[in-house]
Amino acid sequence: MKILVTGGSGFIGSHLTELLLAQGHEVVTLDDFSTGRQDFLQLVAGHDRHTLVEGSVTDRKVLAAAMNGCDAVFHLAAVLGVKNTVENPLKVIEGNIDGTRHVLELAYERQAKVTFASTSEIYGKNQDLPFREDESNRVLGAPCIHHWCYATAKALDEHMCYAYADKGLPMSIVRFFNAYGPRQSSSQYGGVVSRFIKAALRQEPLEVYGDGNQTRCFTYVGDAVRGTMATLRKEANGLAFNIGSDRPISINDLAAEIKRVTGSSSPIVRRSYEEIHGPGFEDTPARLPDLTRSHQVLGYRPNVLLAEGLTRTAEWFRTQEGSGV
After folding, report:
1. Which of the following is catalytic: 123, 150, 180, 300?
2. Of 16, 35, 38, 40, nearest to 27 (Cα)?
């Protein structure tokens, strides 16, 4: 197949591009390098079945040219990160919604399969665990609390995906649960794993926000891209899938595990949400996915245990010392 990966030089997109090429597909990656990096694609630079296009999904003309002749689109381009969400909500809302609308409109004209990258954030503060794709309610805070604008924008993107599916577009949605791994830049993505590892390797304090008892299920990027690629199969059309691990860990325990795998003597310190993000910030106490549908339809199971994934990620960060990652 000929496949477009938007955000293809980013953290997950670059790994997905490599896997698609390894499986024999022709791949076009589109990226504006706002968070992605061209060197993340260095392993496929010069590949005869790979084309890199610099541009944004918000530029309809560039997007249309990149999508020309494509059988499928993995739409991973997004404006993300807690810092962006809190400090620049308009950038988050417009960047995510406008880009997705363009992808869906152009894919519909061509009847190209779309897999849309969503997020576990859309489940919000719901504590009816585990989260089930079509059964769990979304519980968000007030619109004046900007933390929820990313979840709201992604949910509206999903509404558009389902609307186009009703019109006949082959479409799937993947909801990532705290993906981590090599190339997850702490400065660009703000992920807690990359932030902790970078601090641990420098013997700097690991800053835990809040009381640290909040739990998450961390998913190694290799598992995330396998689950994402599996949505190409026809039986995945019209469905959303949780892509994650079903083994929760508290942020306190995550910090301790990262200290262990890196051999770091860094202290663990706690800072309030208000100190980091300002007044009114809300966090979710726990996130846990139900993986039943992903296993039954996609054959998805997370294979990389947290200790192994953290070790691989720490090794990558060691190679990046001084690179600004």
Report:
1. 150
2. 16
